[in-house]
Design a protein that fits this description.
The protein has about 725 residues and is mostly helical.
């Protein structure tokens, strides 16, 4: 009893908001042997007098223990203890009165059962199957919910007996989906049916056999959405993604429902976006199927455009100096993304005729939000409608350029966005045909001093334009480009000193770098105009909020050096190297997400190309941080549905759905820097040749393991 009380204290500390207390509790918890953990956790779950949050914590920890450490813990238990665990779990499900705890105990039972299906598909917990059948036919709604929850969590529960029980499974689901008295049973049954379909996605005969359950699932989608529950709708998105063929017999009804939900402004933004996601996902996973229903696709396009008009008036917008990440939950971003994807999925032959007239009307609307949305829609469909838009590019570009002088700053911003996107999507045709009009319009827009956000976006569009612009086309504009960029840089440098604003300067510095990169040796006459100011920025922009500016300026200096060549750059090379070395010395003090890191790594490689053999003397300083970055080991994890609820993709995680309520997650933060660092190591070896020899062994040890990759169920996994 004393030990159990101590364990309760430990559970309390594991939930403490104090990091120090929680960390110490985690360390103590990790030292408890597995079998003892199971005993203590089960006792906590079954203790009627324990606080609900303690029981919840115990249930979560027990499920995690079985999920991550089953092989280390469970097989070593005595047979009596294994039987006791199974019995305790089933008793707890039957006796627990709190629905949240019962649900969590069902998750534990499902997790244990998942691990008790042997290699031949035998379920070594037959009592759970009996419990499932008894509960689903029980008068007790709580037990029916429990049975469906376990089946939803682990639809492979029948193992090699699945075929034998097929009719029973179907009857069970149909019966529960028709439970008129209990909407929560209908919802759970629909989710369980979807889960079963998803876990048998490649079994064509089974999908056909269960096709008549789809109308019930669709009905549950509709009902549950209006009850504020989007879980069944999320299941439908998963089916569209993983088993689209299942929807074929009822595709018309599926699309009509999604269209209705998407158009209903009484629903939440998330529900409307999820309904749209079903249609968009089908354009990617079952384009041929969707092309037979173009009337509904044509009706979905105005819904996407309507979402893109859902913008807030914001008086501060034009002056904002910090660019916030896109609000991916917003209707405007969701609508734009959907349009981009459906255009790529179905192609321009279908989509452009559907959208062209809508966009033309929007661009003539007196409300700025419609003009903004129309221009953003043009940006979004460029990739998917490439061939069809290329034929009328003259007409499109002439029209878009008019909006660079629109009275509303956010429309001018959207015009810059469309130009920048088209410069990428239609390169180099775009540059060859429209260089005079586009460069002139962008330079004019960059002079919009009262709207820095517009200025910055015009500079960003100029970067897109010059990156893919043939050198011969850019040379005639060099004088004009350089003059404009220099005037803006000087003005913005003054603003930085006086007001601390930096957004436009960040973009202008990159524009200068891009122009130099394309112009190459033709940039030599302008070198002295820019280099002193750029060096000044690197020397003085040391505050945390100026890290991105400093990183971009380091990039700009190294690109200019590479463009003008060793002879012109050499007088400044030593001073630049000292600045870089100073930053490099502080490298270990930089935070992991410091944007300067990737810029520094790339800049060193350019300096190596410029200086050649003379760069060898700097290797002892450069190689340590470079190897550290190249050695980053990303976090990977096998997560189930419960864990994924606590981790969002905004935290830098990306997921691959493996089915069976499980996903493979990888934390992508740092991966880009790792990839850049590996490229730079190759660059050093190539440039310095024998001068790099003393580092060869450690680089080979690092690089060779990175070359392993393998396929599993048509998914490419790279071992990093």
């Amino acid at each position: 009893m004393a030990e159990q009380q101590q364990f309760y204290l430990l559970l309390g500390n594991l939930m403490s908001p104090d990091n120090g207390i929680r960390k110490q509790a985690e360390e103590t918890y990790d030292t408890i042997p597995g079998p003892n953990k199971i005993t203590f956790l089960l006792q906590a779950i079954r203790d009627a007098s324990a606080a609900e949050e303690v029981k919840q914590m115990a249930a979560v920890l027990l499920r995690r223990l079985l999920s991550s450490s089953f092989e280390e813990v469970y097989p070593g238990l005595t047979l009596e203890m294994q039987t006791a665990i199974k019995t305790e779990l089933l008793t707890s499900i039957q006796q627990e009165t709190a629905p949240t705890i019962r649900k969590k105990v069902c998750d534990i039972a499902a997790e244990l059962c998942r691990n008790l299906i042997d290699d031949d598909g035998n379920n070594q917990w037959p009592e759970l199957l009996k419990f499932l059948f008894d509960s689903v036919n029980s008068d007790n709604v709580g037990l029916r919910e429990a049975a469906l929850h376990i089946f939803w969590n682990f639809p492979g529960i029948f193992g090699n007996q699945q075929q034998h029980y097929m009719e029973v499974i179907k009857r069970m689901l149909v019966q529960c989906m028709q439970d008129q008295a209990n909407p929560q049973i209908r919802t759970l049954a629909a989710r369980a049916a979807a889960s079963f379909v998803l876990s048998n996605e490649s079994n064509t005969a089974l999908l056909k056999h269960f096709a008549d359950l789809l109308p019930g699932i669709l009905q549950a989608v509709n009902e549950s959405c209006y009850q504020g529950d989007d879980s069944v709708l999320k299941s439908l998105v998963e089916i569209a993604d993983t088993a689209p063929k299942y929807l074929r017999p009822n595709l018309e009804a599926t699309l009509q429902l999604c269209l209705k939900l998407c158009a209903d402004t009484n629903l939440t933004n998330m529900q409307r976006q999820l309904a749209l996601e079903v249609i968009v996902t089908l354009s990617e996973t079952a384009a041929a199927m969707l092309r037979k229903h173009t009337a509904i696709v044509a009706q979905s396009v105005p819904q996407m455009l309507a979402m893109m008009v859902d913008l807030e008036d914001d008086d501060e917008w034009a002056m904002a100096d910090e660019l916030e990440d896109d609000d991916f939950d917003s209707n405007a971003v969701a609508g734009e993304s959907a349009l981009d994807r459906i255009a790529c999925g179905l192609g321009g032959k279908i989509i452009l005729p559907m959208i062209k007239q809508h966009i033309m009307q929007m661009l003539q609307n007196p409300d700025w939000k419609y003009r903004h949305a129309g221009l953003m829609a043009l940006s979004a469909i460029g990739e998917g409608c490439h061939q069809q838009m290329e034929a009328i590019l003259q007409e499109i570009v002439s029209f878009v350029l008019l909006f660079c002088s629109d009275p509303h700053p956010r429309v001018r911003y959207a015009a810059c966005n469309a130009i920048g996107q088209m410069a990428t999507d239609f390169a180099p045709t775009f540059q060859k045909k429209f260089h005079d009009k586009v460069i002139s319009a962008l330079l004019q827009t960059m002079e919009d001093q009262s709207n820095p956000r517009v200025q910055a976006h015009a500079a960003a569009a100029l970067i897109n334009f010059t990156e893919d612009c043939p050198k011969s086309l850019l040379i005639p504009y060099l004088d004009s480009l350089v003059q404009h960029l220099h005037v803006i840089m000087v003005a913005k440098l003054q603003e930085l000193i006086q007001k601390g604003t930096k957004l436009v300067l960040e973009q202008v510095v990159t524009s200068i770098a891009s122009v130099a990169d394309t112009a190459e040796e033709k940039f030599v006459p302008y070198y002295d105009l820019f280099m002193p100011s750029l060096k000044h920025i690197v020397e003085n922009a040391v505050q945390k909020e100026l890290r991105l500016l400093r990183g971009k300026t380091i990039e700009c200096i190294s690109l200019i050096g590479l463009a003008v060549g060793k002879e012109k750059f050499m007088p400044d090379a030593s001073a630049v190297m000292q600045l870089l070395l100073k930053t490099q010395t502080d490298f270990n003090d930089l935070e992991d997400d410091d944007p300067q890191i990737s810029y520094m790594i790339s800049a060193w490689a350019r300096m190596c190309k410029i200086l050649g053999k003379e760069f060898q003397q700097y290797l002892p300083v450069v190689m340590g941080p470079l190897m550290k970055t190249a050695s980053i080991k990303p976090e990977v994890a096998l997560l189930d549905t419960q864990d994924m609820e606590n981790i969002s993709e905004d935290d830098g995680w990306e997921f691959v759905n493996l089915g069976d309520q499980q996903s493979f997650g990888i934390k992508t933060a740092g991966l880009e820097e790792k990839a850049t660092a590996c490229q730079m190591l190759v660059c050093y070896a190539k440039e310095l040749k024998e001068g790099f020899v003393e580092y060869t062994e450690q680089v080979v040890k690092l690089m060779v393991p990175l070359l392993k990759f393998y396929f599993h169920d048509d998914i490419l996994f790279v071992e990093i």
